[in-house]
Amino acid sequence: MTTVAPVRRRTVGTFVGRYPDAVLGFVGALAVTVGTYGLADVPRNDGTLADLGLAPMTYGHGKTLSGFVFWTGVALMVWAWVRIGRNPKAMTVRATVTTVLAWAAPLMIAIPVYSRDVYAYLGQATLLMHGFDPYQDGPAHVPGPIVDSMAQIWAPTTSPYSPAFMLLAHGVVAVTGQNVFAGVLAFRIVLLPGLLLGLWAVPRIAAHFGASRRRGLWFALLNPMLLIHLVGGPHAELLLMGVLAAGVALVLDGRHVLGLLVLGCAGSLKVTAFIAVPFVVWIWIDHRRRERAVTARDGVGVFAATAAIPLAVFGGFTALLGLGLGWLNGLAFADRIINWFTLPSLVGHIASYVLAPIHVWNLQAILPVTRTVGQAALVIALIWFFWRGRTDEREAMRYMCWAMFAVLLLEPSTLPWYYSWVTVLAVAFTLPMWARQSVVGASTFLLIAFQPDDSIIFYKPVETLLALALSTLAAVSLRHPDPLRLRRAGALLRGHE
């Protein structure tokens, strides 16, 4: 007993000394967590913060101070992430995994930030607890602190979530009831295995194709934008991304049936994961081709198994929930989310501005047209990507990534945490510097454009320009350690002393 503590202290001290950027990001995550108690989506009509003596953080000078702490934390996390990404070889795979877990740990107790979706999860599960059908009824049917805390636009809407996710949510509410804080914490615990699965799967996907495991972890899981949204949110994608990545990793490893079972679980959490399933056909056929000549019978068998296994899993969860395919009703409500981060919505915004001098076109009249065109384009793109991926497993993986990215660009609405769908798959490839810089810039911009209290600034020109400037600085910093030449300026100042 006398030797364990000193050894542990030496181990921690060694890690801190070798990886100061990891510590910098951890301090940032702590600051972000503290700041959420005054700046984020605090539960409404709930006295928990007042009972803890933290209510003054939510108004007046307390809220201002919370904002300063929060944004300082975001800056520290982005700064540390960029510094680590500049030289990922300086950090071992084990150290990178430790860093991901360390940055995520404080966020487990943050106030829900950047979104009120977790309250909607709890509200939809509460309906189940009270005998309602969340695929037919909205959370407003069961008033209480959970519904009060939701974004009210979703209170009367039905659930768009697949059966496995609704079963998980039901399990959470069965334990926590109407206790909002307990429900949020329990949901994070339930979703956390997704991060652990991602830590297992991402290095395997990268190594399978000869890409860097460290850079893959940095790209997909250490990204502050994804960590803060997924863990601090929290969001269903935290679990989804891990299950999706694990299923793909198993398929690449030759365990096709097991991989398809896992991908069926991913699709049962959120149907978007099923976009990856058709590409398993080409990976499986390529693996069989390496062993022997592939016959038409082989092809039919692979096609049938690839379709049947995930559908059987989905059918099992659907039967277990007992509510049929009612989740299809909820998908239509995604149209209520309007931002210009998808091409159909962007084109709609531009058209409404450009045509304004000629004819006053309301955006709500234009969006149905552009979104219908976008959905048609998406169908064509998915078919084309599927066919292009037939060459071998590498091409199948490449076009699986493009298919996921096409969904993000062409669906009616996209939110920042959706990008986890593609990042955990794109680690298969060694992205060029410009692509990594683009990801850094986009991630930083999304951290600023979406505000911690679930508001947005990208319709405010000055704030948007500031966000663009800061995100550009972060992107440039990935290649150039001192893009503002501050060291040179400091040296000049010292030279004049």
Automatic annotation (TrEMBL):
Keyword check for Protein biosynthesis: no
Membrane topology, record value: Multi-pass membrane protein
Domain of life: Bacteria
GO annotation, cellular component aspect: membrane
Main localization of the protein described in the UniProt heading: membrane
Keyword vocabulary terms for this entry: Glycosyltransferase, Membrane, Transferase, Transmembrane, Transmembrane helix
Record localization: Membrane
Listed InterPro entries: MptA/B-like
Transmembrane segments: 21-40, 60-81, 93-114, 180-203, 261-285, 305-328, 340-360, 366-387, 399-419, 457-478
GO MF annotation, one: glycosyltransferase activity
Glycosyltransferase among keywords: yes
Stated family: Belongs to the MptA/B family.
Stated name of the protein: Alpha-(1->6)-mannopyranosyltransferase A
Lineage: Bacteria, Bacillati, Actinomycetota, Actinomycetes, Mycobacteriales
